[in-house]
Amino acid sequence: MAISDKDVTWVEEPEMTFWEALFVPAIIDGLRTTARHVTGYKSVTQQYPEQRPELPMNYRGVHRLNKDDAGRVKCVACMMCATACPAKCIDIVAAPAPKNEEWAGRDKYPATFVIDELKCIYCGMCEEACPVDAIELTHIYDLVGTSRQDLTYDKEKLLDVFEQTKNSGRDPIRTHMGRLGPASEFESLPPLGPATAVPTGDKAARGVSSGVISS
Amino acid sequence: MATVQVNGQDVTIGDGERLNCIQAAAKAGVEIPHYCWHKDLSVVASCRMCLVEMGDKKPDGTIAMQPKLVPGCQTPVKDGSVIITNSDKVKGAEAGTLEFLLLNHPLDCPVCDQAGECYLQDYSYKYGRAYSRMQEPKLQKADKDHIGDQITLFTDRCVMCTRCVRFTKEISGTSELQVVSRGNHAEIDVFPGEPCNNKLAGNVVDICPVGALCSKDFLYEQRVWWLKGANSVCPGCSTGCSIRIDQNKDVVYRLKPRENPQAQGSFMCDDGRFGWKYIQDEKRLRMPVVRTSGTPVEQAWDRVLPAVKAAIEESIKRDAGRFAAVLSPWMTVEEAFLLAKFVKSLSPDARLVMGPVAVVGEDDLYPKGLHGEAPAKPKFTIRAEKCPNRLGVELVLKHFEGEVISFADAMADVGLGRIESLFAVGGDPAGWVTPEQAAQLAGLRLFVVQDILASAASEKATFVLPGSAWAERDGTFINHNGLAQGIAKAVRGPGESRADSRILFDLAGRKGLVHIPTLRKEIGAEIPALAALAVGQLGETGVSITTSSVAVNGTGAGKPVGAAG
């Protein structure tokens, strides 16, 4: 459709003043910028790999599998991470925990736990889905390998990443240091679901003893 | 006709229908949460989850409500009953009951196999309070791995609904499971040294509304939300239990019974539940094999099928009376029809033979009596006839052959040299041919075997066609009672194996793709005894072929139709 005449506004080019027509002030202005760059140069390029970047604390890099106090893998093989994973890069085979002293108190554990680091999109959903804080993303970003197999991390490799990073300062064990998460601690379950807000209208929620339920 | 009001909505209940509040509300589309009540078990009203407000409509139109909440499972409805499930009083009771039920529950959903199909989870979301005021440490009860060969008990997850206890008392009649101790120390247990190993034990896992009873076979194998189901029929015996095949990525993980009052009720036996492992066996046939002068050579389908077809045609042309096709009772009706029609179209003189019908022992009736004796009124029957479709194949044979020639007779004819060429369909995982019979058959001029597992016959046959197990194909099985039910493909078969219907469809030279509903219509139009199949889609619970058309008894294998309900 053609543009109608009433929608068109004609604008005239402003006329140059005398000093503008000389162009000398503009040249001087340009030279001043050049001189500033020559004298006060500050590089913004990071000299990687000699110089390492300062990553933000919530950077999401290579995964690790955390260990509990007893040195066992924290993971209980609930497969929430594999369910949450949008890239479908986590493959877990669960098994009943061995019936011995070492695995006392545990029902289920991951017989194998494999993450394809090449398929992973590092979104961190696995970390968020984990009910026992077993899987965490670390600051390691420069992973290299000569084959696809090298970057398919199995349980041993993921536990190794934990050993490498646990004391680095950049990757603290964020919650429940050394313990299993809330879902597996039956004795000390808080009286109130941690993520649940109690509705103020609920008569039953008004505490039987003071200080237990704060609405 | 009685009218019941559920949350202000009128529901009509048919004459002679005896419903409780839960069932009446379900008719109105209202769910009343419940744990201990089960359609097929006695009522104990112990979980208190189904408490509802109940009242009566008086003749003058006023409604008189009962002052207390009543358990919906235990309260029958009558004309004029009023049920209220959405009042604050009922909602408060539901939330309170759930809080009590969860007092000692470990909340270990991440490691619990029931998570995803757990009524504690579902009802907590819908009716629960999402927090607890319990300040004492939770009771921790030891897991009981010894409770059965196929089942294991996570004692602390139990909500003491006693469904499992009532099941072993009332359905299996074996009474292994008991409640021991009282109060919140109550536990499900077995008598020392008497584990729950009856043939219906697997059902207690299904009826357990929480994750207390788990199947050892399925334990930690998969999370249930990954499983994709296909409705099918158990082929273990001629009862034809309606089941669901749960699979993920072409691997079958478990079978679950579907409720079908016409077939078996709500349950299934452990023989069927755990007896499907052969479909993932190493011995499955994966490639078509052609055996020329003793050496087997694997060949592609598009070379084998024309060769088989030419060989069959050549045998029938030479002497049609000496050609026989063996139809297995493990075939679907459609497959039997395709094969029978193909053979008879080549020559009416070619013979159709019924494959061996395995009968093992006697029908196993439940609930068992005190000393294991059979009950007068069985609630569940595991049949002695260990094949799914004897009746359906027989009806096809009667139509095309006029009589049912038994496999034993056919073998006698082979011995006398009256049969020179044989096309045999197997399918029975327990084996359908003895090594002696196979050796005898190996001497034939043409011996084609279509089977799923390597056997004595497949090692001798001229052509071996790898067929599909029942979980890998579509079709129809007709059970002992004349109930035609659809089976559906849940997984793909191993290697190059193909659905039997497709093999026979291609062999018969039909054009297009196998479409089971269309085939059913064709069968229904052609075979009067199977006219009921003309509907095409059989639905979830199947279609009964009329009793008059199946009143004729079979070859003597199995029971007469209609006997032993």
List the strand order in the largest sheet of chain A.
2-3-5
Oligomeric state: heterodimer
What percentage of residues of chain A falls in helices of 4 or more residues?
10-25%
Terminal CA distance of chain B reads 30 Å
Radius of gyration of chain B: 27 Å
| Fraction in beta strands of chain A | 5-15%
Mean pLDDT of chain A: 82
Overall pLDDT of chain B: 91
Major β-sheet profile of chain A:
3 strands, antiparallel
Shape of chain A, please? elongated
Q: What characterizes the major β-sheet of chain B?
A: 7 strands, mixed
What is the level-2 CATH architecture name of the largest domain in chain B?
3-Layer(aba) Sandwich
- The count of DSSP E runs of length 2 or more, i.e. the number of strands of chain A, is 5
Termini separation of chain A (Å)? 63 Å
Low-confidence stretches of chain A: 176-184, 189-196, 207-215
- The assigned structural class of chain A equals alpha+beta
Can you characterise this structure?
The complex is a heterodimer of chains A (215) and B (565). Chain A has 215 residues and is an alpha+beta fold. Chain A has helices at 18-22, 24-39, 80-84, 125-129, 155-165; strands at 63-65, 90-96, 108-116, 135-137, 152-153. In chain A, strands 2-3-5 form a 3-stranded antiparallel beta sheet. The longest helix of chain A has 16 residues, at 24-39. Chain A is elongated and about 95 Å long. Chain A starts with 17 loop residues before the first helix and ends in a 50-residue tail after the last helix. Residues 176-184, 189-196 and 207-215 of chain A have low confidence and may be disordered. By secondary structure, chain B is an alpha+beta fold. Chain B has 3 domains: 2-86, Ubiquitin-like (UB roll) (Roll); 140-280, ADC-like domains (N-terminal domain of TfIIb); 289-544, Rossmann fold, CATH 3.40.50.740. Helices cover 23% and strands 19% of the residues of chain B. In chain B, strand 14 and strand 15 (295-298) form a beta hairpin. In chain B, helix 8 runs parallel beside helix 9 (390-401) and helix 8 runs parallel beside helix 12 (500-507). Chain B starts with a strand and ends in a 21-residue tail after the last strand. In chain B, 49% of the residues are buried. The chains are: A alpha+beta (215), B alpha+beta (565). The A-B interface holds A 76-80, 83, 94-96, 107-108, 131-132, 183-184, 186-187, 189, 191-193, 196, 198, 202, 204-205, 207-209, 212-213 and B 92, 95-96, 106-111, 115, 129-135, 137-138, 140, 143, 154, 219-221, 223, 225-226.
